[in-house]
Amino acid sequence: MGVRGARAGELVGLGWRDVDLKDGRLLLRKTKNSQPRTAWVHGEALRLLKEHGRVRRLDDDRVFVSVRGRRYDYRPGFEAACAAAKVEDFTFHDLRHSAATYLAREGATEQQLKAIGGWKSSVVSRYVHLAAEDAKAVLERMSAKILGS
């Protein structure tokens, strides 16, 4: 999850002018709700992006472009990776939901989730609710262990 919560179209539409490799910051201009937002990339994803930047096409600002200069199609590689990992019924968009769930479990607030994922509606409240349910289960296990009930 190098770029948490980003949509595939946001990444495919990314231009080098919107990439800050030093800070690992991406400006996603083309978003579903037409509101640009910042995304952060780090770790192995940032390393690979830096490597990709060293061998990029200079006549095309797009970060992701096919060998023939067309819009990059991530699906064949993504589907091959899922097949190799024996992961079924999983889409790139599912990564958004996973990211939101993991972030909520780590304590991200609803406002932080909205900023990270670009959600405008209250859809993020379900991720916060899931995290609260997880917390409830952890507290119940701790109480049972300590109090023996």
Give keywords.
single chain, 149 residues, mainly alpha, hpI Integrase, Chain A, 2 domains, three-stranded antiparallel β-sheet, 6 helices, 3 strands, elongated
Q: Care to describe what's here?
A:
With 149 residues, this protein is mainly alpha-helical. The chain folds into two domains: 1-90, Intergrase catalytic core (hpI Integrase, Chain A); 93-149, no CATH class. 47% of the residues lie in helices and 7% in strands. It has six helices and three strands, in the order H-E-E-E-H-H-H-H-H. The chain has a three-stranded antiparallel β-sheet with strand order 1-2-3. A hairpin with an 8-residue loop joins strand 2 (25-28) and strand 3. Helix 4 crosses helix 6. The longest helix is centred in the last third of the chain and has 23 residues, at 125-147. The chain is elongated. The N and C termini lie far apart (39 Å). The relative contact order is 0.13.
Count of DSSP-assigned helices: 6
CATH class of the largest domain: Mainly Alpha
Number of domains: 2
CATH topology (fold) name of the largest domain: hpI Integrase, Chain A
Radius of gyration: 19 Å
Question: Considering the protein shown, what is the CATH homologous superfamily of the largest domain?
Answer: Intergrase catalytic core
The chain-level mean pLDDT equals 86
Helix content, binned percent: 40-55%
CATH architecture classification name of the largest domain: Orthogonal Bundle
Q: Structural class, from helix and strand content? A: mainly alpha
State the end-to-end CA separation.
39 Å
Sum up the overall morphology in one term: elongated
Helices and strands, in order, run as HEEEHHHHH
Which residues form runs of ≥5 with pLDDT under 50?
none
Determine the strand fraction and express it as a percent band: 5-15%
E-strand count: 3
Q: Could you give a short account of the major beta sheet?
A: 3 strands, antiparallel
